[in-house]
Amino acid sequence: MTFLKGRVGRKVSDFFMDFLSAAEGLDTKVQNRGMLQSVDDYCADAELNKNERQAVCQHVYSYCNQQLHVCEKIKLKALPQEISSDGEKNFMQFSSENGYLLKDSFPADSGTLRQLTNFAGRCGGISITFDALLLGKRIFWDAATDTLTTKGTQPNLRDQLQRRLSGKSK
After folding, report:
1. How far apart are CA 139 and CA 87, in angstroms?
2. Same domain, yes or no: 86 and 149
3. What is the CA radius of gyration of the chain?
4. Are residues 107 and 34 in the same domain?
5. pTM of the full predicted structure?
6. Among candidates 68, 70, 71, 91, which has minimal Cα distance to 81?
7. Which of 35, 68, 158, 170 could be joined to 108 by an S-S link, Cβ 3.0–4.6 Å?
8. Which of 168, 139, 143, 141 is nearest to 153 (CA)?
């Protein structure tokens, strides 16, 4: 029995691709992450405040999510209409000048796109997801102490906590 092992920095999948004479296609997640990073950097370059930045992210998310639901690709040409309407520096020009290697169009990735409007994290048995609009309103992050504070507990969660702390269960 023979087993194929990766060698000299190559993985087994590389050998399989060579055997099939196949080329690696477009990495949808990489394209979506690149677009998110370029939108974020574009907003920083334009010195948008928190509300303006959130509005841009919401517009981009709406467009991309719409494309996802109609099974169409995200078209970079359409993004400037979502990002700026007041003659600011063109988004496509900004992306190409700053070295983002984005294709003219690519499929949407819903998981990656959610990062435009939501924050999510999981670590040490805690899973947190919240709408970006809540940051600074009901959810507060103190960078100095690395503390996340929430105001206003969801009723169902509050009931569970009260039952657990009082020792009563339903």
Report:
1. 34
2. no
3. 22
4. yes
5. 0.70
6. 91
7. 68
8. 139
Spatial distance between the Cα atoms of 92 and 52, rounded to a whole number of angstroms:
19
Q: Based on the fold, state whether residues 82 and 125 are members of the same structural domain.
A: no
Full pLDDT tens readout for the chain, 170 residues = 455 555 666 666 666 666 766 555 668 889 999 999 999 998 888 888 888 888 889 989 999 999 999 999 998 888 776 676 554 467 777 888 888 888 888 999 998 999 999 999 998 899 999 998 898 899 999 999 999 999 988 899 999 999 999 876 55
Considering only CA atoms, which of 106, 51, 52, 98 is closest in space to residue 77?
106
Sign of CA dihedral 42, 45, 46, 47: positive
| Residue 139 · residue 149 · CB < 8 Å | yes
Q: How far is CA 40 from the centre of its chain?
A: 10
CA 126 – CA 57 distance, rounded (Å): 26
Domain enclosing residue 143, as ranges: 121-166
